[in-house]
Design a protein that fits this description.
10 helices; 5 strands; 5-stranded mixed β-sheet; about 300 residues; alpha+beta; binds iron/sulfur cluster; about 15% strand
Length: about 300
């Protein structure tokens, strides 16, 4: 998911990174200015997850209100989103397992990773079923899709480790992990300075800083980039280092195989302002304590229909 190809590296080094140096982000929109407007949150008491702020599935944001005021738990708004949560978990668990195996001196990672992915998948599906109704068809489709992802991901990881080993046969486990996995996965950051959750978890971040990855299923939507801007602001508020590049990794199914499409972009002023606007709007709405209207045009796949339409 996070290993870049030659063209992507060229685009980053010859286009995106030079552009971030030439057109610097407005300093007022850097996370490290969390104590000042417009970064300063409307409330420091109500801490919200980044995905809840950025995603716009319910037109009146009643889904967020139900999560925070009625259900008091982080339930996805759609089955599609639930599947996304499971895919995220699967991928990050595979990276974690791979690192553990390298530290333990395992040679054949691929088969072990695929076997382990099956266990993770079953566990995650069972966990999700406690909150969201997944029918047999959903489970079957998701299982097949995740098995394809696991096979592909395990092969990529094993080949990367072998490539590094072949180049540097004398490396110890620590160095082998560093060179084979130049990204940290499930990166936790405390977003409370920005009115965000204390346990924000970005899917992955480049080890040397400056770039955040987020995985999405299906087609591109504008809010996907806005979500990454939220993580970038939170990282900047804690680490005081610029995070200028975002990458949304789109995973989809095509025939019998999977398709991976990485969207790279600059986390510029517009994305930052859009995230902050959404954050302030949602905080104000939830603090006002008035119930948002039921939307006129609800997506038919919203899992909250039973709450909204009895
Ligand atoms: S059913 Fe409609 S109003 Fe209710 S949360 Fe879903 S999209 Fe919003």
């Amino acid at each position: 998911m996070y290993y870049l190809d030659l063209i992507e590296i060229k685009r980053l080094t010859r286009d995106l990174l030079p552009r971030t140096r030439d057109n610097q982000v407005d300093d007022r929109l850097r996370g490290w200015n969390w104590f000042d407007s417009p970064i300063r949150p409307y409330s420091s008491e109500l801490l919200l997850p980044v995905w809840d702020i950025a995603c716009s599935i319910c037109p009146t944001r009643r889904d967020a209100w139900l999560r925070h005021k009625v259900l008091k738990k982080s339930i996805p708004t759609t089955v599609y989103q639930a599947k996304g949560f499971i895919v995220h978990k699967l991928i990050s668990s595979m990276f974690l397992k791979a690192k553990k195996l390298v530290y333990l001196g395992y040679e054949d990672l691929r088969d072990e990773l695929i076997r382990n992915a099956d266990e993770i998948l079953k566990k995650e599906i069972e966990g999700m079923k406690r909150n969201v109704e997944l029918n047999d068809r959903d489970v079957q489709d998701l299982t097949e899709f995740c098995k394809q992802i696991a096979k592909w991901q395990a092969t990529r990881i094993e080949s990367k480790v072998l490539e590094v080993k072949a180049k540097y046969p004398f490396l110890n486990e620590e160095s082998l992990v560093q060179l084979s996995f130049p990204m940290a996965t499930e990166v936790v950051v405390d977003g409370s300075l920005l009115g965000l959750s204390k346990y924000l978890r970005a899917d992955a971040a480049w080890m040397l800083g400056g770039m955040i990855f987020d995985i999405k299923l299906g087609r591109k939507e504008e809010w996907h980039r806005i979500q990454v801007a939220g993580y970038a602001l939170a990282f900047e508020s804690v680490f005081e280092r610029p995070v200028d590049i975002g990458c949304t990794v789109y995973v989809s199914k095509t025939g019998n195989s999977i398709r991976i499409d990485r969207d790279f972009y600059i986390i510029g002023d517009y994305l930052r302002s859009s995230f902050l606007e959404k954050r302030d709007e949602l905080q104000m709405m939830l603090l006002k304590d008035s119930e948002p209207d039921v939307a006129d045009n609800c997506p038919k796949y919203c899992v909250f229909r039973s709450y909204c339409f009895g």
